[in-house]
Design brief:
With 140 residues, the protein is of the alpha+beta class. It contains three helices and six strands. Strands 1, 2, 3, 4, 5 and 6 form a six-stranded antiparallel β-sheet that branches. α1 crosses α2. This is 4-hydroxybenzoyl-CoA thioesterase.
Amino acid sequence: MRTYEYHHVIGFEETNLVGNVYYVNHLRWQGRCREMFLHDLAPDVLQALENGLALVTIRCSCEYLSELFAFDHIIVRMSLGALTQSRITLQFEYWRVKGQQETLAARGEQQVACMQREGEQMRAVPVPPSLREALRQYEA
């Protein structure tokens, strides 16, 4: 299975008093991975976001398997779990990299609805064609 990869080195600001990564950061990395995917593979969607398109996260989760610490190098691997008319389900795996060894540290999921702003209202719209095409390369 092909995955989109976001590489990240953990900083002190992402840890808690105990020294391990504060749990909410895993969800932030899901968002960052999704943003970089759009930047790299569907840049026209970024333009559409300026014109009223909204990618609304309606559900996200993370299962924590092992602790992460400052200066750990991680790879967040994203794949497409499901694609419907107006919703996308993305799957994430968080891998800690030490030398040539990778260890699965967490896995997560995020469901996104494509919406269009119309004044103060929003309505569901189809997944933009370029995004649909870009995502198909990463089907689980």
